């Protein structure tokens, strides 16, 4: 097919179009129509040029299919002579005929070589006029780019005919390539020399409705504008250069990494012909050829292609984001993934070391203080290490020591002869043990030495509390004593109870004691005065809790009472248990009571109502601990259960092949672990969330034959166990296990 070009004379150009896509291309371009632009304001602006015909995807009406069908044959090049008419190759289009769409280019005031062409551009195409209108004599006599000689205020309303591509030879012998345009956008043009270097690139521009200009949002490759979109896109130049290839992407990164080559392989002689044949095919034909080629490749060859292709499409989006956004993205990672990300590159290492980022991770884990790094040797001079990160890492290593670290030989603290250790306190590096030998001993958890022996009681010590260097003890001699643990001095002896002081609870400078005389007393430990006496139980008081405002007590009369100590009145008597109450927990809102009747009850302290009855144990609940809504209970049936007191559900039962073989005597739990002791002579570690058995921390050789672990107390890094026996098979002593990490 042949047809007229854009116009006779030196402004002629040639547009070659693939036969299969010419109808779609004509429909997309000619259907756009003519529009009238009003209030045009042009200004001069220097822009970068486009590199490929792929930019046609930004045109409304130009689809990926049209581009694929025409990308290799749609070119814009100078005619060999001014007399030649613009023709489309008959070999490509057959016998059908179609006119090449044309466009009128209006230009703004430009200087340089363009001024020499002002008079010569009038005849770019026959019948084409500067404003696209007919019957106006003044405009017919004007050159196409006559607006270049006008002042902006003298511009008249103009029209443009859209959708075509043309080129011409300038008076200096260079090629002029016009850009496609669409909508109410003016043609962009580019003047090139013979070696294709840029001389000038001017983009006339009309005033938009939006004062901010064209919407800056870019379309992704392969997408087109929605039909009717008001956003007009400027297109790439119609140039003979091919589209950007994958090889261009690989070569662009040559400065960063040397391109991989197949070593010791000479290229076959047919390779270049084969590549040229491939290059001449259309987009769909190339895809078909690649599909067939992949089917004929061996797996090792496919693997090689993946190794070559995948790195070219990897983007370090974290480095491209502002630091604040990058840190926000990283904040969603788990600490383990943050540590892995820090190994990616130096910039990621800097981000992953952010102190505030690790502070939040620490708070999620319940770590309240950063690690002091003043004594730590910095591995990289000038690099800012995060104290919060080191605090997190230290805690992680401590947790791993608990879970799977080597169990070092414990410190053995021998004392109290063969007597029973009845109570145990552990705070900081100070351990206080009470025994039925009438004494208490103060130990150093670091050295294992007995620092003080507190002598003064005339009966066995059965209860104790400690805060800093103050120790309070209760005895069968019916008294309480206040001790200075540093000096071993007895500061006060508190008289008033008429029977054994069986339990107590310290809060601030006040301690509440419960006795077998069925009364409770509130004491000031600084003055030694008895402030209040609470009477109402009709049997021995076995357990007590005090939060500074309310006193809660459990007794052998099967009841739990809530007291207002200031008025010495009982606000609630909680009835429901059918046997003795042995254990209590109180968080200020909920009361949890454990009884010999095998049940555990959850009460509301304000209303006195029983919220839940926790059933599942088979015997006496001897010990409990409550944190937030999680309750852990130990029972004489050898099991430990984990409860949610808000729902009343049993979350886990710590049992199985590795469960205790006798009554659970004591327990402690943290955010990750539960530590339990038993009459079977073992101390076991369990996972709080899963209920799985982790390992034995202590296993007495005399376990099962009389060896007992009576009490345990744990801190973040240490575990203290009070062990002995009732038949002389195990010596009474304290075992101190250390799980701390060395930061040297």
TrEMBL record:
Keywords, in A-Z order: Nucleus, Phosphoprotein, Repeat, Ubl conjugation pathway, WD repeat
A GO BP annotation: SCF-dependent proteasomal ubiquitin-dependent protein catabolic process
Pathway field: Protein modification; protein ubiquitination
Assigned GO CC terms: cytoplasm; nucleus
Span of domain F-box: 315-361
WD repeat feature ranges: 428-453, 454-493, 494-533, 534-573, 574-613, 614-653, 657-696
Gene3D superfamilies: 1.20.1280.50, Photosystem II 12 kDa extrinsic protein, YVTN repeat-like/Quinoprotein amine dehydrogenase
Matching InterPro entries: F-box-like_dom_sf (IPR036047), F-box_dom (IPR001810), RuvA_2-like (IPR010994), WD40/YVTN_repeat-like_dom_sf (IPR015943), WD40_PAC1 (IPR020472), WD40_repeat_CS (IPR019775), WD40_repeat_dom_sf (IPR036322), WD40_rpt (IPR001680)
Compositional bias annotation for Acidic residues: 152-170
Superkingdom in the source lineage: Eukaryota
Pfam families recorded: F-box-like (PF12937), HHH_3 (PF12836), WD40 (PF00400)
GO molecular function terms attached to this record: ubiquitin binding
Subcellular localization(s) per the UniProt record: Nucleus
Ranges for region Disordered: 125-170
CDD domains xrefs: F-box_FBXW7, WD40
Name of the protein: F-box/WD repeat-containing protein 7
Native source organism of the sequence: Callipepla squamata (Scaled quail)
């Amino acid at each position: 097919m042949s047809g007229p070009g854009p116009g006779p004379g030196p402004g002629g150009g040639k547009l070659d179009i693939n036969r299969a896509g010419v109808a779609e291309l004509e429909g997309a371009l000619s259907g756009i129509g003519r529009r009238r632009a009003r209030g045009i304001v042009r200004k001069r602006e220097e822009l970068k040029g486009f590199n490929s015909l792929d930019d046609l995807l930004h045109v409304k009406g130009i689809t990926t299919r049209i581009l694929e069908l025409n990308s290799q044959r749609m070119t814009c090049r100078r005619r060999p002579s001014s007399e030649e008419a613009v023709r489309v190759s008959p070999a490509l289009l057959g016998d059908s005929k179609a006119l090449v769409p044309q466009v009128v280019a209006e230009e703004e005031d430009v200087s340089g070589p363009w001024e020499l062409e002002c008079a010569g551009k009038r005849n770019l195409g026959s019948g084409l006029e500067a404003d696209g209108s007919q019957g106006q004599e003044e405009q017919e006599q004007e050159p196409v780019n006559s607006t270049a000689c006008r002042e902006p205020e003298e511009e008249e309303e103009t029209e443009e005919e859209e959708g075509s591509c043309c080129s011409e030879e300038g008076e200096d012998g260079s090629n002029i390539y016009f850009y496609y345009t669409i909508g109410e956008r003016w043609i962009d043009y580019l003047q090139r020399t013979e070696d294709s270097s840029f001389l000038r690139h001017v983009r006339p521009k009309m005033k938009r409705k939006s004062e901010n200009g064209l919407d800056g949002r870019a379309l992704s490759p392969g997408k087109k504008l929605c039909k009717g979109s008001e956003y007009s896109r400027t297109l790439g130049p119609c140039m003979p250069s091919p589209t950007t290839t994958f090889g261009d992407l690989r070569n662009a990164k040559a400065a960063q990494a040397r391109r991989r080559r197949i070593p010791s392989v000479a290229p076959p002689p047919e390779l270049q012909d084969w590549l040229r044949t491939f290059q001449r095919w259309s987009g769909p034909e190339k895809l078909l050829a690649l599909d067939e080629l992949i089917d004929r490749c061996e797996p090792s060859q496919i693997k090689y292609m993946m190794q070559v292709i995948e790195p070219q499409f990897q983007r370090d989006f974290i480095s491209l984001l502002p630091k604040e956004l990058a840190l926000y993205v990283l904040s969603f990672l788990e600490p383990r993934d943050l540590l892995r990300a820090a190994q990616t590159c130096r910039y990621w290492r800097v981000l992953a070391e952010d102190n505030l980022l690790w502070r939040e991770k620490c708070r999620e884990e319940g770590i309240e203080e950063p690690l002091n790094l003043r004594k730590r040797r910095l591995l990289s001079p000038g690099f800012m290490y995060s104290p919060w990160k080191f605090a997190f890492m230290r805690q992680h290593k401590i947790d791993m020591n608990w879970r799977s670290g080597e169990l070092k030989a414990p410190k053995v603290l021998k004392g109290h002869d063969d007597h029973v250790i009845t109570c145990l306190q552990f705070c900081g590096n100070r351990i206080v043990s009470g025994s039925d030998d009438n004494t208490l001993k103060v130990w150093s958890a670091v050295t294992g030495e007995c620092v003080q022996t507190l002598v003064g009681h005339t009966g066995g010590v059965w209860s104790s509390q400690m805060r800093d260097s103050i120790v309070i003890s209760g005895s069968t001699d019916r008294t309480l004593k206040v001790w200075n643990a540093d000096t071993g001095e007895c500061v006060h002896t508190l008289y008033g109870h008429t029977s054994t002081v069986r339990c107590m609870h310290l809060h601030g400078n006040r301690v509440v004691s419960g006795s077998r005389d069925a009364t409770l007393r509130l004491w000031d430990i600084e003055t030694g005065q008895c402030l209040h006496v609470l009477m109402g139980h009709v049997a021995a008081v076995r357990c007590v809790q005090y939060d500074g405002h309310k006193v809660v007590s459990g007794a052998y009369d099967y009841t739990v009472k809530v007291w207002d100590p200031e008025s010495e009145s009982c606000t609630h008597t909680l009835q429901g248990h059918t046997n003795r109450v042995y254990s209590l927990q109180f968080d200020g809102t909920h009361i949890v009571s454990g009884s010999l009747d095998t049940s555990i009850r959850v009460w509301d302290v304000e209303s006195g109502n029983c919220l839940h009855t926790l059933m599942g144990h088979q015997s006496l609940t001897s010990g409990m601990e409550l944190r937030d809504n999680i309750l852990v209970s130990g029972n004489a049936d050898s099991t430990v259960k984990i409860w949610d007191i808000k729902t009343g559900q049993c979350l886990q039962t710590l049992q199985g092949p590795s469960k205790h073989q006798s009554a659970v005597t004591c327990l402690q739990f943290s955010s990750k672990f539960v530590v339990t002791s038993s009459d079977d002579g073992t101390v076991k570690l369990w996972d709080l969330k899963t209920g799985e058995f982790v390992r034995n921390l202590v296993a007495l050789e005399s376990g099962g034959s009389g060896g007992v672990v009576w009490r345990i107390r744990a801190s973040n890094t240490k575990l203290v166990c009070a062990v002995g026996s009732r038949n002389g098979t195990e010596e009474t002593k304290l075992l101190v296990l250390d799980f701390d990490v060395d930061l040297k």
